[in-house]
Amino acid sequence: MAMESPNDRGGNARPLLSVVDDDESVRESLPDLLKEFGFAARAFSSAQEFLSSGCLTETSCLILDISMPGMSGPELYQELRRRGQDIPIIFITGQRDETIRTRVLKQGTAGFLLKPFSDAALLTAINMALQAT
Question: For labeling, which of 5, 18, 26, 84 is most exposed (least CB within 10 Å)?
Fold first, then answer.
């Protein structure tokens, strides 16, 4: 799990973005990219790991894989809503299933990106998600 303080060197708060994906390469590369964008970042291998991390109230935006073992991304989204946590979520997936995309967007998620996605597309989705809060 990548751990970094949500403060920059000047002591200013930076939004914490949490990544939940069972794919190790995503968990290793995406937080590095998010830090290059100027965000604090943490990565988790499962929905359960994220829920037990204590990061719920710190997370400004959640980048969440759709399909994971155990609790899926949409199931985590529903659990967060049940708990009253209104964290903007950007779903990411390699599944080109329009039904899933339509369903999660109708539920009010902040964004949906198909893997592989560009750095620019991710940054645009993050900025939109953070502005909506």
Answer: 84
